[in-house]
Model the fold of this input.
Amino acid sequence: QRQHKCRAGRQGVQRCCAQVNGATGQGAKPLRVRTAKVRDCGPVSRLCAEVFAREQTDLFRKQAPYLDAWLSLLEDWYSDQITKELTKQLAKSLAQKQLATRESQTLKLRYETAEKRTATQLVGGFASTPAARNLRRLIATKDAQRMFCCLLAENDDGEIVASVTVSMTVPDAKLPPPFPTRGVQRFYIGNMVVREDYRRKGLATSMLRECEKLAKRWNCDSTWLHVGVVSDGAQSLYKGLGYSQKGVDPWYYVLEKRYLYCKELPLPPNSKFRRIGEKSRGTENAALSER
Done:
């Protein structure tokens, strides 16, 4: 029996050997789930474009079947535009992640070198100096920039049949980027797509499970995603996996409203969210004691 090992890189990201068991039905070979490389930007973007363009035009086809020929042309044009834009965005995000990884490694090396050099020179050690605090802030910033990943599933022929993008963002922000927000960054799942001939086989569920594993590696306490208000099937899927509705799109979303869903995960011992919770509880207790 073949054993597929899962290797975690320095970012704590699952590499290329996990299998989606049972996603392709009985008698079919399992699919492999791996992280996307820069060379995968084109195929992933084309898959997303085909799915998104088809979803946008199918609604009009049902309402006006006589426009099918015109809608086919519109679908092809829309798919090309999405492919170009997504390819550019995905390549840019992966390049920024690689740059942030190198910069983080350099800063950590500088920190370790300075710590060893001043171990016997400073009373409180290097960690108590302003320079050390500044380096720790820079390292934390670069580590946050590294928290981007695109997971994809491919069959034995090397064809990409599903993909999903995860990142750290503020999903419940009142205003869209580039407007600033003071909300807490959360593990956000976006651009979940499955090729049409691989749907209803458990593949979407398996991809979400992989996202949850990655969220735990990143020490996150929850996963967040958006789902269309009219997408009853997707809503049932997410609710069956433990997601619950936390909000709805703000007023500036005029084309299609979406629900904001969240699923709470077991909190890792070293998660920053535990410290945030303990701090807030301590503040509340102090306020009550003063009263």
